[in-house]
Design a protein that fits this description.
Structural class: alpha/beta
Helix content: 25-40%
Strand content: 15-25%
CATH superfamily: Thiamin diphosphate (ThDP)-binding fold, Pyr/PP domains
CATH class: Alpha Beta
Largest sheet: 8 strands, mixed
Number of helices: 9
CATH architecture: 3-Layer(aba) Sandwich
Radius of gyration: 19 Å
């Protein structure tokens, strides 16, 4: 009897495309891409069974840099596209990537309702507190006193708190990573993908071009001093006293994901068209 030959385990490199990333030198998104491919290697899902969806912005280029199925959508609408994809194809692992401008400004409404619907997908937001692609405007997470040429003296507007919003809206998994810790972030992303329901991972990803002071983030981030909880009330109390630099899984809930029907026969285009005939 011939010995059975098992396929070689998938490596992070198997999820990287031949396209060279074109971010600014020193951008944190390079290591976030590395963390994502490492996470996919951890879960060992073949690239053709994974879909990466994005909107507009520096971080939204990620689908092109993977060998997975990819969809580069319009500004702020990545979660809407990903929700439709996951409901139509529940057999796929769906990962959404974007930034704080795309996700929390024009995409803010989709963000809240994606958390509420709890469809089984993972949303990774690379947060650098600035619009990097459009040359340095304040974003929803920018500190109100950040002084710059476009907002002298700062905007004076309270910063958006994405983890609090995600928890309050019903996200089933809430975590924070740091681009300077690619292995730790890969572990968090893998946990998020495996957790049922809507998983939200904020990744602090410095923009050294327009926010060079963010280089000091590596000196202030640290593992969260508390263990993950499935109690949203406890998680909320922790978040309201969080300074934004505690890393790790904060909340891992037990809500049932939005129901999808596996194993359905695919609907033919002709059948759909017949429903609209006059």
């Amino acid at each position: 009897m011939n010995d059975m030959v098992l396929p070689a385990p998938l490596r992070a490199a198997d999820y990287k495309s031949d396209y060279k990333p074109i971010w600014c030198p020193g951008c944190g998104d390079y290591t976030v891409l590395s963390s994502l491919t490492k996470a996919l290697a951890i879960i060992q899902r073949p690239p053709h069974e994974v879909a990466v969806v994005s909107g507009i912005g520096c971080s939204s280029r990620i689908p092109a840099y993977t060998t997975c199925y990819g969809f580069h959508g319009v500004h702020g609408r990545s979660l809407a596209a990903a929700t439709g994809l996951k409901v139509a194809r529940p057999d796929l692992t769906v990962v959404v990537t974007g930034g704080d401008g795309d996700g929390y400004s024009i995409g803010g409404n989709h963000f809240m309702h994606a958390c509420r619907r709890n469809v089984d997908m993972t949303y990774i937001v690379m947060d650098n507190h600035v619009y990097g692609m459009t040359k340095g405007q304040a974003s929803p997470t920018t500190e109100p006193d950040w002084d710059n040429k476009l907002s002298p003296g700062g905007t004076g507007i309270r910063a958006f708190n994405p983890l609090v919003i995600a928890l309050a809206a019903g996200a089933n998994f809430v975590a924070r990573g740091f681009s300077g810790d690619p292995n730790g972030t890969a572990s968090i992303i893998a946990q998020a993908i495996r957790h049922p329901g809507f998983s939200f991972v904020e990744i602090l990803s410095p923009c050294v071009t327009f926010r060079p002071e963010q280089k000091h983030w590596k000196e202030v981030v640290r593992p969260a001093p508390v263990a993950p909880t499935d109690d949203p009330a406890l998680a909320a109390r922790r978040l309201m006293t969080d300074d934004g630099f505690n890393l790790g899984v904060l909340h891992a809930g037990s809500r049932n994901p939005y129901p999808t029907r596996m194993g359905q026969t695919a609907t033919r285009v002709a059948d759909l068209e017949s429903e609209f005939e006059l």
